[in-house]
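Appendix B. Raw example, untouched.
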Amino acid sequence: MQITDANQLLELNENEFIGEVPKMTNSQINFTGKNNILVCEDDVRLWNSRIDFNLDNSVLYLSSNIHDYSVNISLHNNNVCFIGKNNFFNGRTSFVLSESKNIILGDECFISYNVVFRTSDGHPIYNDISKKRMNWPKSIYVGDHVWFGQNAMIFKGSKIGSGSIIGANSVVSNKKIPSNTTFAGAPARLIHENVFWTPHSVHGWDDEEIEKMSHSNSDLFTYSPDENTLDFDDIEDKLNNSDKDDAVEYVSMFLFAGKNRFCLK
C-alpha cells in the first residue's frame, strides 16, 4: 500500500498505525510487508521523505518535532527504529535497517547533509578458508544532542554517546564514541575530549557577536552517568526479546529517562 495522503494511515489492514496523523509534504509511506507498526506523536511533519516497510514485523517510532522530518527510512524484518524529539535534519537523512537490527536516535541531534545510518553491509562476506561469515550486522545507538557533519556515515555496531560530535566525511563503524568527544576521519578517530557544542547558528555573527560568544559557562550540554543512565546492551537485549507491541511501549519510556539517559563513558 502506497500512502501519499496521511489519512490513508487510518485505513491500514495488515499493518497498524498509532498516534496522531502526520503532515506529509512531497512524501510517501509504503507498506509492502505486514504486521508492522508506525507510531507518530503529535507534530510529526514529513517533508520530502520516503518510508518503506519492505517486509514484516518492524516498528518505526517518530517522536514530536519542532522541525520537519526529512528522511529516507527503509525497514525490513523485525527492525525497531526510534527517533527522538526535535532532531534537525539539514537535508535528507537515510536510515537503512536490515537483518533484524535496530536504530535508536535520541533527542535534539543536528544532522547535516547526506548522513547515512546502516545496520548491515547489505551482502555477506565470508572467509575464503573457514567459509565463515565475517561481516555480521549490528544495531546502532545514538544519544541526545549529537552533531553529525556533512556526509558522515554511521555503520553497524556504532554506539555514540550524548553530546558528541562526528566530523564531516567521517566513517564510524563498530565503534564506541564517548559523550562529549569529537571523532572525525575515515575511519573515525578521537580528535578532542571534554568538549560540548551549542545549537547557536554562527552564520550571521558579526565581530561583536563572535566576541560575545567566545566563552560559555553552560553545563546544559555536558553529560555524566547517573542512576537514570541506560545501557545500550541492555536496550538491545530488551528489544530483541520483545514482541512489536512491547517494543513500542519500551521505547516510549525513553522519553522520560532524564538528561543522562544515553550518556556513554
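End of appendix B.
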